[in-house]
Amino acid sequence: MEVIKEMIPVVERLKREGYVKSEKVIQALLKVPREGFLPEGLKEYAYLDTPLSIGYGQTISAIHMVGMMCEALDLKEGQKVLEVGTGSGYHAAVVAEIVGKDGLVVTVERIPELAERARKVLKKLGYDNVIVVCGDGTLGYPPLAPYDRIYVTAAGPKVPKPLIEQLKDGGKMVIPVGKDLQELILLEKKGGKIFKKKLCDVAFVPLIGEEGWKEY
């Protein structure tokens, strides 16, 4: 895909502020048309670095957060990645750009209408390396496990055990945890052991599901 002109000043600022550093993340952000994932009335705000409502109580993440999570995951070409919380499909598209045609993004969305909308947009934009599944993302997606990388776009009370189980040894996961006060956690699995590191404080929509919040 061609570079999106409107994204250039946004990415330049994110580089200056240290949110994005690697060329693969920078290029992915520059190529994914964020307006394509937004409701009609919000397309004019596509290149503002802020979360925006996509309906059903959900949001498209701010551009800096998408970039920062991609950097933390250290994504590589050809990897298989699980996303929990498809939302608009924008974040999955950015990751799909990075892992390339030989990679795969499996993204799980609990709200059927959002899953269907994202599936259509991703297909229209040519992201054939993304599979959208409608279901409970807190349980992961066992049929295609294990995954090289996992990231979660909603905050739960803890790191769901099924996601840890479905992460490859040597794999990395980024997930927000907490309710009123949330922390973005980088989790690495090494030799069967789990190592956690706090990245920053964040504000995400709640992670609803069997291994998340039952209700919020």
UniProtKB/TrEMBL annotation:
Family annotation (PROSITE patterns): PCMT
InterPro entries from the UniProt entry:
PCMT, SAM-dependent_MTases_sf
Q: Name one Pfam family in it.
A: PCMT
UniProt GO BP:
methylation; protein repair
**Catalytic function, reaction form:** [protein]-L-isoaspartate + S-adenosyl-L-methionine = [protein]-L-isoaspartate alpha-methyl ester + S-adenosyl-L-homocysteine
Question: Cellular component GO terms, alphabetically?
Answer: cytoplasm
Q: Which UniProt keywords apply?
A: Cytoplasm, Methyltransferase, S-adenosyl-L-methionine, Transferase
MF terms in GO:
protein-L-isoaspartate (D-aspartate) O-methyltransferase activity
Catalytic residues?
A: 61
Q: What is the protein's known function?
A: Catalyzes the methyl esterification of L-isoaspartyl residues in peptides and proteins that result from spontaneous decomposition of normal L-aspartyl and L-asparaginyl residues. It plays a role in the repair and/or degradation of damaged proteins.
Tell me what this protein is called: Protein-L-isoaspartate O-methyltransferase
